[in-house]
Design goal:
This protein is of the alpha+beta class and 527 residues long. The chain has 2 domains: 248 residues, Periplasmic binding protein-like II (D-Maltodextrin-Binding Protein, domain 2), CATH 3.40.190; 217 residues, Dipeptide-binding Protein, Domain 3 (Dipeptide-binding Protein, domain 3, Roll). It is 28% helix and 20% strand. The chain contains 15 helices and 21 strands. The strands form 6 sheets. The chain has a 7-stranded mixed beta sheet with strand order 9-10-11-2-12-20-13. Helix 3 packs across helix 4 and helix 14 runs antiparallel to helix 15. It is globular and about 65 Å long.
Amino acid sequence: MDGLSRRRFLAATAAAAVAVRAPAVHAQKRGGTLRFVPHADLKILDPIWTTAYITRNHGYMVYDTLFALDAGLRLRPQMVGSYRVSADRRWYSFTLRDGLRFHDGQPVTAEDCVASLRRWGARDPLGRLLIAALAKLAPVDRKTFVLALAQPFGLVLEALGKPSASPPFIMPARLAATDPNEQVRETVGSGPYRFVRDEWEPGHQVVYARNADYVPRDEEPSGAAGGKRARVDRVEWRYIPDPATASAALEAGEVDFWENVPLDFAPRLEKNPAVQLLVTDPRGSLGILRPNHLHPPFNDKRARQALLWMVDQPYYLQATIGQRAYYRTCPGFFMCGGVPYESTAGAPPKADLERARQLLKESGYDGRPLVVLDPTDSPYAHAPALVTAELLGKIGGAVDLQAMDWSTLVARRAKKEPPAQGGWNIFHTWATAFDVMTPAVSAPLSGAGEKAWFGWPTSEDMERLRAQWVRETGEDKRRTLAEQIQRLAFDEVPFVPWGQFEVPGAFRKTVRGVLQFGATLLWNISL
């Protein structure tokens, strides 16, 4: 890709990634324990099997990537030491840098990289498009592997450096051989921190220890790229589901860093001279209402269209976010606010409950309970679940609102059984800019059926248009295709956007070197 088209693609898939208050490297001390309050409880360890952000963040602690985005939205080699690309961009050769070892002491090899990419490519929407375009992906020797294309694919390096949900993390080939539909149960990475399994207590804590054998790049940290220096000896994730307790712990100095601050607590923390608030993902997130396409009534697109006409974004945003400075309505599927593919093409003009009621009736809905999953410990999914339950009642739906924690929802949403047998009809989540700003990276848009993201929509037209999009190198043509994809999405309704918002984090001012990025990164931090 030429420089201009690459910059445009990266601007469409990444948030600015800059180091905040990070002093010069020589001024930062090392040691101590970082006490971190994550946004959810970690129950699933495999960052390829799930797109849950809590597991992605765990992945960044433990694993490394071949490429990564820096603060200027440029792709930079990470595990790769050098690479070559043919003039026609159909052939790529990658050689790993020296010093890469897994946490079990084994060297990282080209075979590990190939196996990891193939497993990632079996699940990730962008990965599937890349794998479908390949003629060859194979090791050459222990440190070098090649990738050859059978058909044009303009985003090879961008795919290998995909920053979120799911990044192509590299794990040992023996673990990457696990069926993509099954979870990898053993956590062996090569990144800056090791997962301390003996101290993992689901519902309470996760512990990571500095990997003394990790050799960071000899570069300043920049976004997810550069030198990943583990400056503390130990990181403890302390799961505190009650926000009042988490806020009090931060103010008392019992914890150092609170990942996602409910906005009701922001004004008080802003007044505390020992605490700093920071929006770590300045492009924000898109709220998502996801119906299950496998079972009635939402296997009928008229029922999904009923959801589209039911959702009143200002109502959802006021109930979920509340503070106007942190949210905006956004009718499109690719986010709003100066982003390349922002569009209102195909969007309904406003909510219409009467039209929603009629569409639900036309879908053949028979009054059976609609199972809405309600993660009560996640304010950005709990509040929209309550709003959806209320509005479904207004359009004639019988609602079964089932309370659980977020990690239980993450496991439950993978169930394909009918709702009456432990499945579900609707859940709510949110996606950062990394994960919805282009047709290539948006997992909720995929129409790959059984291989699609949880909810499993089937749309041959969607898959055809997305494949066209990744082959196209002209920006004007890409924009046209993105509008076609959005119009199709408003007709088939793979999901319903309920608004755009920002989430601040908070940390003690003794914490230095926090990186601003669309995923939570805990290297480079010192105390």
